[in-house]
Amino acid sequence: MNEAGTLTLRNISVWDTGERIDLIVDGVRQDALIEGNARISGDIDASDLVVAPGFADPHVHFRDPGQTEKETMMTGADSAAAGGYTQVLIMPNTIPALDGEPWNDAPFDVENVVDYLQRYGCIYGVKLPVRYDLSVCASLGRKGLKPSNIELWKKYVAGIEDAEKTSPMKKHPITAISDDGSAVPEPILRDVLAMAKETGLPFVEHCEHHDTGAVNDGPVAKMLGVGGIPASTELAIVQRDIDASRETGVHVHFQHVSTAAAFEAIRKAKKEGLPITCETAPHYLALCDEDVLKYGSMSKMNPPLRSKSDRQATLAAIADGTIDMIATDHAPHTAEEKSGDFAKTPNGIIGLECAYGVCRKVLVDAGYTDDKHLIELMAVNPMQLMSRRPTDIAALLNVSSKCANKRTLRLNITEHPENVDLVLINMREKWTVDANSFHSKARNTPFDGWQLTGRPVATIIGSEIAFSRL
């Protein structure tokens, strides 16, 4: 029985103005929700809730195609929706790589991995509960030897030949160029920047160039008897690419920045007026290299967790606005992979379902920023990196309000309800992270068991509730 209900959330607070409104969602169906026991109709006292633009993550790995034992587009999307995300950017280290080259042994009738991901919903007959864009490889096969072939992937870029595009191509365009996982080598850097300039894409850079090492270079590396990764590896790429941006005018976005020296270089570049942006991840805000002794391989990632002073510099970079956005770098791995020898276990952790709570704990509760700025970091600014517009709730109120003393937002009567993406957050909810309850296939997180305050309770995509704990 798939009856549709109308859900009215009374006295919900708008994230940036604090205005109390009634939010009405029509057509809520139980079978469309990830959580099967959520309410689909009636009035709810939402005075503890905040409505904001849906979160956007500019850095996720959904492992599909090629490593679907770790994650699939479906499980990754479910995980994103459960964490309050309505938009993500897929990184190009799929197997085969997301470079536009022909996929000759593809299991479906697709041209390449870009085509496969754009038509994923049609191929499997599913509707994913999150919107997603694609990041194309900077180098052929993401091997760093020569640039990827722009003639093979240019047609998929947002804003290029849009009149010729099919619906899937328009829904899931290429909006960035990156070799995430490794920095673009110097011999091909200018070619990659030229492709970014021609297509208008931001160059999204993994700012490290080391070949060895497992943790931050320092006492912890010595205690564990493993190779260390010096902070200088990050600064070298950041400074190199800042110089290249100055020379070419290309927008360079630095991924998962983790060191004090790199933040200072970025800070100076921004003061110079260069088109530079950067992100960090919740784990660099919450943890340092000493925590590896407690969490083991669940805290092994690339870049590694850095020193206490680097962590403090990361928090300071949030406070002073140097950091533009927060990305999870959601990187699923199997339990077997993460249970092996520490030095050989793969890098990466998952983070979509607890990112907001972790960030609120270490940033808002600790006084480094406020709730409004945190939502800008997790929703507004990442959308702008992908050349997308976050939902403007105030504008929607002006269209749909019918009550003089308290405005009402009824989603299905807005001008373009299909574009309305929202997250509802209970900022007072106290909860404990339980990795076993995650919607992701993976469980590799150091935050399992953490006690947090503040949690997304519903995600709305195109004016329809995709996920709900209401």
From TrEMBL:
InterPro entries in alphabetical order: Amidohydro-rel, DHOase, DHOase/Allantoinase_Hydrolase, Dihydroorotase_CS, Metal-dep_hydrolase_composite, Metal_Hydrolase
Cofactors, names only: Zn(2+)
Keywords (A to Z) from UniProt: Hydrolase, Metal-binding, Pyrimidine biosynthesis
Pfam family, one: Amidohydro_1
Keyword Hydrolase: yes
Domain Amidohydrolase-related stretches: 50-343
Domain of life: Bacteria
Annotated protein name in UniProt: Dihydroorotase
